[in-house]
Amino acid sequence: MNEVGTPVVFAAFGTRTRARMTYAFMHREFSAHFPNHEILWAYTARSIPKTRNSDSGDPVLSVKEALSLLASRGHERCILQSLHVLPAWEFHHLIRETRESGPPLDVSVGAPLLAGPSDYVPVLEALGAKLAPQDGEAVVLVGHGTDHPSVAMYETFNGFVGKMWGPRVWMELVQWAEPQEPMEARAARLGVDRVRFVPFLIVAGEHVKNDVMGPHETSWRNRLRKAGVSCVCDWEGLGMLPAISLRFSEHVGTALSNLFAAERPKRFKGLILDAAERSTRNFPKPTRAASGKTSCANLSLVAETAL
């Protein structure tokens, strides 16, 4: 068996205009890294418009549709590369959808951007000079947040941020965040008069536009302005950085090696879903508890599919 020619499906979240611009850039990067592989895109958002991509003319596919298309072309195996930042709810939804889809393919899943501690420093290095604060400035990474157990990875990653860049660079989360210190209070304590926001999101979309830089009273920008701190924002998401596409490409390379290895990868080193396994096994659907927190009953699925 040969790795060359194995198709790669990149699984992203949404299809809005800013997202399509980002994915078009990433597609060019991936095509350069994998010139001998067929590349497809699939989307994991619950509601996907069944229209053609206005940029490429290609149909907008779900993961199941992308796998079915490859099977119809005679492929027996493929790589499914997650373009999520963390192995959180959307990533596990991707795993479940892949397991439940019908096409008879062996699927090797590529890890999200941050799959474990070994990813933290390379990702920070990929951000490079974006994180270097100027005099009188703080840099705030804008993370999405989650109520999935993987939220702990944000805290660990933030520790690496502080070690590499010092106290004037840190991460804030848009959702499900309980900061120990409000960002305006931290800015005042540090004596900075300007905050520069750097999106730690694949696409700098609605969260950055509304929650961070929006006109409403509780936006991050207006909270800081009331404290006498000015704000600027880098409107490019992680997906617009070639080094981030390279990092995802390295995960694709690992998934390819796993698919053709003599032995299956050990836990946290990769995940392969056999065609036979996907057609015969029935997995419980991971859900949130009524409180909105993660249900302990679903942690077995989290552990089983975590990379």
Structure description:
- This protein is α/β, with parallel strands linked by helices and about 300 residues long.
- It has 11 helices and 9 strands.
- Strands 2-1-3-4-9 form a 5-stranded mixed β-sheet, sandwiched between helices.
- The C terminus is likely disordered.
For the record, give the distance between the C-alpha atoms at the N and C termini, rounded to a whole number.
24 Å
The global form is elongated
- Main β-sheet: number of strands, strand sense, barrel status? 5 strands, mixed
Class by helix and strand content? alpha/beta
**What fraction strand?**
5-15%
Number of DSSP strand runs:
9
Rg over CA atoms, rounded to whole Å, is 20 Å
- Helix count equals 11
Q: How are the strands of the largest sheet arranged?
A: 2-1-3-4-9
Give a summary of the structure in a few sentences.
The chain is of the alpha/beta class and 307 residues long. It is 37% helix and 15% strand.
Structural descriptors:
11 helices, about 300 residues, 9 strands, about 15% strand, alpha/beta, 4-stranded parallel β-sheet, 5-stranded mixed β-sheet
Write the layout of secondary structure elements.
Blueprint: E1 8-12, H1 17-33, E2 39-43, H2 63-72, E3 77-82, H3 89-100, E4 106-110, H4 120-127, E5 137-143, H5 152-165, E6 169-173, H6 183-190, E7 194-199, H7 206-212, H8 220-226, E8 230-233, H9 242-260, E9 271-273, H10 275-280, H11 299-305
Parallel strand pairs: 1-2, 1-3, 3-4, 5-6, 5-7, 7-8
Antiparallel strand pairs: 4-9
